[in-house]
Amino acid sequence: MRIRKKMLIVSILPIIFLGILTIIVARFEMKKIATTQLNTTLEATAVTALEVYQSKNDEPYSRDENGKVWKGDYCISDDFSVIDAIHDNTDLECTFFYGDERIVTTILNEQGERIVGTTIKPEVAATIAKGQAFYKTIDINNQAYNTYYFPIYQVGSDSEIIGCFFVGQSTSILDKSINDITIKFILFIIVVVFICGALMFIIVGRISKSLQHGVEVVKEVASGNLNVDVATEFLGKKDEAGVLATEINRLKNDLRNVLNQISEDSRLIISSSQDLLDTAT
């Protein structure tokens, strides 16, 4: 493999590796931050929704013989406006549970119908029964959701839990947002790698050209050609390649001077020998 290719590989590979590592770490951190922000939003939305229901009147929650849930004279079972308004403004899904049953909800089934009358998952119900909020990614109607369930207490009681309020968002929405940002980040890294690669190609090309010229000069000198010239464009450089070219040129000149001196000394010796022969005869 030529030195130019080796230098390019050694220069570009660390940049590519660093780019891949940056994308992995950035994606992990983005998801972590986005999930934290989403959980905060879900909690705030649930609290706000419950305040809306609480503000209807000061009467307790109850359920009539027909299964409808009321708060005083306000029928929660017949009013979807509260949760629909939240859904339209925030793109979040909402559900009011009485006991473990969905009374009103924005979640639809495959037929486009609200899944009222369905029940809460046992693990959620167990947490709510303890008076604790439930944060977790779970499947609802065969779709994964980032969820927040908040217990609802009976009016005037801090111990009687009559149900819970759910706010959630499909995981596909968060994943899509993160994927979109990741794609933009990948494109940015590709551009950076391309620019760095182009710059390294130019720089390595110049260094390689200097080295190749130095090698050619050394080959000529080794073959006995001491009249070969080192290009002036390389002699003027201040980098290592320029120093190498200067030293090669100095070596060539020194060798030529030595050979010239040897040639002159040989000529003198031959001339002296000839004079001695002439004297002897």
Outline the structure in words.
Helix content is 59%, strand content 17%. The protein has 281 residues and is an alpha+beta fold. The strands form two sheets. The chain has a five-stranded antiparallel sheet, with helices on both faces. Strand 6 (134-140) and strand 7 form a beta hairpin. Helix 1 packs antiparallel against helix 4. The longest helix has 52 residues, at 3-54. It is rod-shaped. The chain starts with a helix and ends with a helix. 16% of the residues are buried.
Major β-sheet annotation = 5 strands, antiparallel
Query: What does the average pLDDT come to?
Result: 84
Please give the order of strands in the largest beta sheet: 5-4-8-7-6
**Coarse shape:** rod-shaped
Report the structural category: alpha+beta
Helix % is: 55-70%
Helical region count? 6
* Rg, alpha carbons: 42 Å
What's the order of the H and E elements? Answer: HEEEHEEHEEEHHH
- End-to-end distance: 67 Å
The proportion of residues in beta strands is: 15-25%
Q: Which stretches are low in confidence, meaning pLDDT under 50 for 5 or more residues running?
A: none
Give the beta-strand count: 8
